[in-house]
Amino acid sequence: MKCLQCNKLLKRKGSVYCNRGCMTLDYRKTRIELVCAICNKNKKIPPSYKNRKYCSKKCYHISHKNKKRPTHSQFMVNYYKTHKHPLTFLGKTHTNRERQNMSKRMISKWQDPQSKFNSKEYRQRLSDEGMRRNRFGKLNNGYSHGKSGWYKFDKNEIKYYFRSDWEVLYARYLEYLKRKKEIKDWQYEIDVFWFLKIKRGVRSYKPDFKLINNNESIEYHEVKGWMDNRSKTKIKRMAKYYPSIKLLIIGRKENNDLKKIEKLFPAIQKL
Fold first, then answer.
1. DSSP secondary-structure letter at 239?
2. Which one is the CATH code of 149-270: 3.30.70, 3.40.960, 1.10.1420, 2.20.28?
3. 3-26: per-residue pLDDT in tens?
4. What angle do CA 215, 219, 221 make, to 5 degrees?
5. How far apart are CA 150 and CA 262, in angstroms?
6. Which of the residues 85, 143, 163, 198 could staple to 90 if both were Cys, CB 3.0 to 4.6 A apart?
7. SS3 142
8. Spatial CB neighbours of 164, under 8 Å, sequence gap ≥ 6
């Protein structure tokens, strides 16, 4: 058998080319011509790239410079408008009777001491997963009554995600102190304190605000409208494992006092 490119006799059975060079030369014959949509340059590409519109990554980025890339959820919604959805239950809902049965089954599993939901291994796995997500900033506490959202001060390019109106008001107060040079700086949810000896339950604590005073001393402020059992445990363990850290609790009384002088604080814009 001979090589398809140079017609030399092949020594190995089953081969089509005598070497890689001949294979490359033969593949180049099948290439098609591409005209770039940005720079109009001609470029030969393999047939498998026939749907490409640009000659390089540079031209691709130029074409998408002012285009806003859709989120993954938006992309999938638009995709399934023209393609078949993989789930057969799309557009359907459970009946009320089935929902009640599902609820009863889950309640019975949690009430059963022998179920996996009440095993030490499962509870420990949930605690470890929550600690891991919290360590990488992927776990946030939900607030059902607070007006959460992204905020930004006029003179500051930093964006903050506050979870309640009380946090927004206190951030404005700290920014007011900073501009008056009564404090050096402040930061929001910047440090996490870990309780390494605790294996279950409350294993870490992230204070709301970190204050850096003019004398370089550091203190933390926690804005609390409602002190539940979990919050009480966090504060107690903070005092036990980090006794040298100064922590102040900003409650309802302090919040009401700040509202009286709210007009003095700098404005903040909700994004």
1. H
2. 3.40.960
3. 877 888 887 777 888 888 888 887
4. 140
5. 20
6. 85
7. coil
8. 143, 145, 146, 147, 148, 223, 225
User: To which residue do tokens 């938006």 refer?
Assistant: 74
For residue 209, count other CB atoms closer than 10 A to its CB. 21
Q: What is the mean pLDDT of the chain?
A: 85
Contact 262, 169 (CB under 8 A): yes
Contact 37, 43 (CB under 8 A): no
DSSP 3-state of 116: helix
The torsion angle over the Cα atoms of residues 94, 96, 99 and 104, rounded to 10 degrees, is -160
User: Collapsing DSSP states into helix, strand and coil, what is residue 37?
Assistant: coil
Distance CA 47, CA 228 (A): 65
Per domain, the residue ranges of the chain are 31-63, 99-135, 149-270
174 φ/ψ angles, rounded to the nearest 5 degrees: -70, -35
Q: For 137-175, how does the pLDDT look when each residue is reduced to its tens digit (9 = 90+)?
A: 555 555 545 567 888 887 667 888 888 889 999 999 999
Q: How far apart are CA 246 and CA 255, in angstroms?
A: 20
CA nearest to 149, candidates 163, 165, 166, 170: 163
Tell the residue number behind the tokens 């789930």, with chain if given. Answer: 87
pLDDT, position 238:
92
Closest CA to 135 of 206, 241, 221: 206
CA distance 139 to 149: 16
DSSP state, residue 85 = -
Q: Exposure of 246 by Cβ count < 10 A (0-12 exposed, 13-18 middle, 19+ buried)? A: exposed
